[in-house]
Amino acid sequence: MKNVLFISYFWPPSGKASLHWPLFIIKHLPKHSWKPSVLTVDEDSFSHTDESLLNEVKNVTVIKTAANEPFNLYRKFLGKKPQAPLVASETISLSNTDWKHKLAIWIRMNLFVPDARIGWAFSAIKGGKELIESERPNAIISIGPPHSSHLIGKRLSIKFTIPHVPVLIDPWVDIVYYKEFKRSRPTLALDKYFERSTLRNAAQIIFVTQSSRDEYVKKYPWIEKKSHVLFWGYNEENFETIKKEVAGNEEIILHAGNIFDYQNPVGLWKNIKSEIDKGKNLRLRFVGTVSPEIKNSITEAGLDLYTDYKGFLPYNKVVQEMLNTSYLLVCATEKRHVPGKLFEYLRTGNRIIAFGDDNNEVNGILQEANAGILLPYNYSKLDIFEKLKSLSPNPTIAKQYSREVIAGKLAAILNKL
């Protein structure tokens, strides 16, 4: 049995969706002769807690160190109470024009490089040293964003001469939400240096979409032979234990997870209202956070009486909600983005309404399973539900994306180090 150290900012009891890939890969890796340990933070500002996730992984050494986040100062600056919850989609919302909000965004985008979690590095290096001395790992895997995790992984890799494998769930320097905000030239130069030097040092590099890997290979041709795609995937075990409940008269359209201002499918809201006006018994439901602009658009479409905002739910209840719906909504951020929830959506066997501009990867996955349609964000025709009628989703296609399968592929990459 070989040892591998995972550096993941998010870890149970955090309910952050970003932790599901490392958590369930770690769960299955011992089947492939790799014993994981974990370096993480003591707490983070944005996550609701999901105690059920604590039961997923047993007998794993976990060291938690101080996050040193700036968000308490952020709360104080905005006049919020010290323990007031923070909503990710609201903290970078462009619809909020208050000067304090705009200044806070500028500070976050320009004074924290590569991201606002960089303060963790001060305690993580010490905690990582302790783990390395006790567990003697053969490899280090860092999960980002936050891409600060990769800097920690690189530092420990160099210090202890251990191969480093960064996992880029999202792009680094040109992550999509940066394009709406101004970053100074020195900030960009420093961030580009961090990205390039981390990839130079990496023994292997993991991407969770083919389109991201392709773009990075164009940017850095020398990573081609050491980069791989392991999709985000889903947990088959959840679908074996949670069963679809008998539906009522309503047809539910569900969006699970965070939805931001820049993911606003205005035409869909008009389609839903048009169908309701024709007598169709539709209801729109959100599980997770919803940005202010999305809520405004729903109000303008006259859908307030037909919309539920359920907020955060434990993961097993989110899966139950997915299974119980008639339609599932997913909004790709950009052409390189394959939303993680898409794989869970595929496994439900329910029809999927996807939005994304020029996203061939999402379109290909949907077509393979005959599961959904991909529309551009500016789609305005009132025929979306008519288009969905001909679909007959095949949920068994999703099983190739099970995280147990993906863990085996990761082990094969680690075995070659």
What this model shows, in words?
Helix 1 packs across helix 16. It is globular and about 65 Å long. It is of the alpha/beta class. Helix 11 links the parallel strand 9 and strand 10. The strands form two sheets. It has a seven-stranded parallel beta sheet, covered by helices on one side. The model has no long low-confidence stretch (mean pLDDT 89). The two termini are 15 Å apart. It has three domains: 205 residues, Glycogen Phosphorylase B (Rossmann fold); 36 residues, no CATH class; 165 residues, Glycogen Phosphorylase B (Rossmann fold, 3-Layer(aba) Sandwich), CATH 3.40.50.
**What string, H for helix and E for strand, traces the elements in order?**
EHEEHHHHEHEHEHEHEHEHEHEHEHEHH
Domain module count = 3
Give the end-to-end Cα distance, rounded to a whole number of Å.
15 Å
Can you give the mean pLDDT?
89
CATH top level label of the largest domain: Alpha Beta
Low-confidence stretches: none
CATH homologous superfamily classification of the largest domain: Glycogen Phosphorylase B
> How many DSSP E strands?
13
CATH topology of the largest domain: Rossmann fold
How can the largest sheet be summarized?
7 strands, parallel
The percent range for strand residues is: 15-25%
| Cα radius of gyration in angstroms | 21 Å
Q: What topology, given as strand order, has the largest sheet? A: 3-2-1-4-5-6-7
User: What shape does the CA trace take?
Assistant: globular
**Could you say which structural class the secondary elements and strand pairing correspond to?**
alpha/beta
CATH architecture name of the largest domain: 3-Layer(aba) Sandwich
| Percentage of residues in helical conformation | 25-40%
- Note the total helix count: 16
